[in-house]
Amino acid sequence: MRKITRRxxxxxxxxxxxxxxxxxxxxxxxxxxxxxxxxKGAKLRVLRWKRFVQGDEDLWxxxxxxxxxxxxxxxxxxxxxxxxxxxxxxxxxxxxxxxxIIVGWYDDPHxxxxxxxxxxxxxxxxxxxxxxxxxxxxEYGTRxxxxxxxxxxxxGNCIVYRKSWMNEAGFDSFPKDTDGLLRLxxxxxxxxxxxGFALGNAVGDGNVWTHWLLWSFGGQMVDSNNQVVxxxxxxxxxxxxxxxxxxxxxxxxxxxxxxxxxxAFLSGQIGLTAxxxxxxxxxxxxxxxxxxxxxxxxxxxxxxxxxxxxxxxxQAMLFSHSKxxxxxxxxxxxxxxxxxxxxWQQAAIGYxxxxxxxxxxxxxxxxxxxxxxxxxxxxxxxxxxxxxxLGYSSAAAMADxxxxxxxxxxxxxxxxxxxxxxxxxxxxxxxxxx
Length: 434
Prior knowledge:
By secondary structure, the chain is of the alpha+beta class. Helices cover 43% and strands 14% of the residues. It has helices spanning 6-23, 54-71, 82-95, 120-129, 135-141, 163-168, 178-190, 205-216, 233-246, 260-266, 278-285, 325-336, 338-347, 364-367, 377-380, 392-399, 402-411, 417-429; strands at residues 25-29, 33-36, 43-49, 74-80, 101-105, 142-143, 146-147, 150-155, 158-162, 272-275, 294-297, 312-318, 352-353.
């Protein structure tokens, strides 16, 4: 989209302002100002996931009330469990009815792009104003050159651990590679402080760490041509490593969902897990006796020799069945602007890592050094469709928990590594049709 300069703005004058008003879109300087005129009597329904961090919800709702005060547009916000957001979004797309905006997961918008309002004008305005979108955010938000959703960011995932227990296990610093991670987990377990990673159908924690594991050994569900390649020697190596790691886990992780490892860590049952900053937030707000002992580290690097992170990506979808698309786009613009977005991040101590580069400078990332590992999680992450393209196949495979189930089956010994990989291949081929 062409940027409008100051000189252009003067040339356009009152005629341009009148045209913008008639279209519901005002842009006296594209990178500086944008607004959408809400429809008369507009009222919005917004569905989003339930918070793991209270500050997230508190500031989100405060910003929503501020929007209503400034525009007169009433906004009804519904909060659903993480597992329920995806099916509700699919139903809304299929029947053409439901919330105007749904804040959902990963590449779900790519399953029904024709049911979503084009957000290109809004996304390009935000990108121009706030330093540009990270490449992974652009990949998630666009399809065939248009923005079908508006990336909110990701619940960054890092290793969360008790530093004193790590030191007692013989480690002065957190390991940087997968071999070191395994040795640390073995030592922690020996000392009675086992680790625990979610292996149930956890939208966040289960998906995130198992994809990291697969990719860190060079395994992939598909290659760059979207051909299924998950049944490979690299995948089998990853699964054999998962089996060794699982032997150090606290019992019961095969049924863990997103809340289980939080509770286990905060109760002192485990000494290490993969999670968002929500554990640290809860420890601070609850006055935990060991809050000062909680530390964070980025995911270790595997045999591929480079970071292979996946993080719980979340983005807003505006459905074409909405009767008030201008009001909805104005709501999204308002919530993504610095005046609302940065205080929201701060209230949640960085629970959601930004998709726009300018927000790297948010003081939340340096106010406490323990926040900093989460700052670059979106900049460093891959898409869940790696190494192929995002679309119906990648979204459907993700929704079916193919990678999580494969790792769980092999790690817990329900299947040999080669059999778990072969079963995952068959499941993947249902979505990535030859």
